[in-house]
TrEMBL record:
It comes from the Eukaryota. Pfam families: Abhydrolase_1. Keywords: Hydrolase. Epoxide hydrolase involved in the biosynthesis of cucurbitacin and mogroside tetracyclic triterpene natural products (e.g. siamenoside I and mogrosides IV, V and VI). Cucurbitacins have cytotoxic properties and exhibit deterrent taste as a defense barrier against herbivores. Mogrosides are nonsugar highly oxygenated compounds used as high-intensity zero-calorie sweeteners; they also possess pharmacological properties such as regulating immunity, lowering blood sugar and lipid levels, protecting the liver, and acting as antioxidants and antitumor agents. GO terms for molecular function: epoxide hydrolase activity. InterPro entries: AB_hydrolase_1 (IPR000073), AB_hydrolase_fold (IPR029058), Epox_hydrolase-like (IPR000639). This is soluble epoxide hydrolase. Belongs to the AB hydrolase superfamily. Epoxide hydrolase family. Gene3D superfamilies: alpha/beta hydrolase.
Length: 324
């Protein structure tokens, strides 16, 4: 990762580690689960060489950034507050920045656009679309997921404090990272209690795809060995709390230019009703009126920015160049 600089900054009451490279308009990269700044390594190198300043933090609870103990310290307000503090510290000279988010990072990117559109020039969301805020259903997210997918669904299994962390530790952090990052089934991810997770026998080795090396796995594993998974899964433990906090934004639209990119094998893309929402005129386009393009990449699964790094770099560059 030649030329990538690392530093730790005090933002929003925590110490946040950030990787950065380049000069020019800032692109803020927001990682997902279970990732780190490192998942953006290809984008940092490519976009910095094309005249941008790439900034990729470890989010709270991850890597070399602080991990507050309280579950309630991981709400959408905390996460966006961290990013605002980061931008104030590293990009005070820029009124607005470009933003790219993947997985949980995509959700946080949507929150940033919703709460502080004055900070965002344009947004590229990978994998996770904006979801209409509609508490009128009165069904909280975890309850809805449990009703649709059952108690074994991974987001439901993440709710009990300490439980999934113990299971992951028993399996082994390196093995867990391999399993997550190579998961390619579009089906719902389940972790039934008392059985092997990820749908295949533990004895069978996990074969790494060409875009993922043993060195990559070891880097991820080294950080999660140090922090554990509690901070990361605490994001999921705030799904219902976020639902309540977002009530004031009921019916709100995203008012920044957006490009959405996903893979046709992404498990998120195959969640019930999501394809219809993404592609219908009364769905995503209605809630994100400045949505310029939806791209569905063939044969690509969830970790799209790593699996198809060059193509994603091109999508990001071509879109952001419109606003220079």
């Amino acid at each position: 990762m030649e030329g990538i600089e690392h530093r730790t900054l005090k933002v929003n009451g925590i110490n946040m580690h950030v990787a950065e490279k380049g000069n020019g308009p800032v692109i803020l990269f927001i990682h997902g689960f279970p990732e780190l700044w490192y998942c953006w390594r290809h984008q940092i190198l490519a976009l910095s060489s094309l005249g941008y300043r790439a900034i990729a933090p470890d989010l709270r609870g991850y890597g070399d950034t602080d991990a507050p103990e309280s579950v309630s310290s991981y709400t959408c307000f905390n996460l966006v507050g961290d990013l605002i503090g980061l931008l104030d510290a590293v990009a005070a000279d820029q009124e607005k920045v470009f933003v790219v988010g993947h997985d949980w990072g995509a959700s946080i990117g949507w929150y940033l656009c919703l709460f502080r559109p004055d900070k965002v020039k344009a947004y590229v969301s990978l994998s996770v679309p904006f979801r209409r805020i509609n508490p009128a259903t009165r069904v909280k997210p975890v309850d809805s997921l449990r009703a649709i997918f059952g108690e074994d669904y991974y987001m439901c299994r993440f709710q009990e404090q300490g439980e999934i962390e113990a299971e992951f530790a028993q399996i082994g952090i390196e093995e867990i990272m391999k399993e997550f990052l190579t998961y390619k089934l579009p089906d719902a991810l389940r972790f039934p209690k008392g059985t092997k997770p990820f749908g295949h026998p533990r004895e069978s080795p996990v074969l790494l795809p060409p875009w993922l090396s043993e060195k990559d796995i070891q880097y991820y594993a080294s950080k999660f060995e140090k922090t554990g998974f509690t901070g990361a899964v605490n994001y999921y433990r705030n799904l219902n709390r976020n639902y309540e906090l977002l009530v004031p934004w009921t019916g709100s639209q995203i008012k920044v230019p957006v490009k959405f990119v996903t893979g046709d094998q992404d498990l998120v893309y195959h969640m019930p009703g999501l394809k219809e929402y993404i592609h219908s005129e009364g769905g995503l386009k209605k809630d994100v009126p400045l949505l310029e393009e939806v791209v569905v990449m063939e044969g690509v699964a969830h970790f799209i920015n790593q699996e198809k790094a060059e193509e994603i770099n091109t999508h990001i560059f071509n879109f952001f160049q419109k606003f220079i």
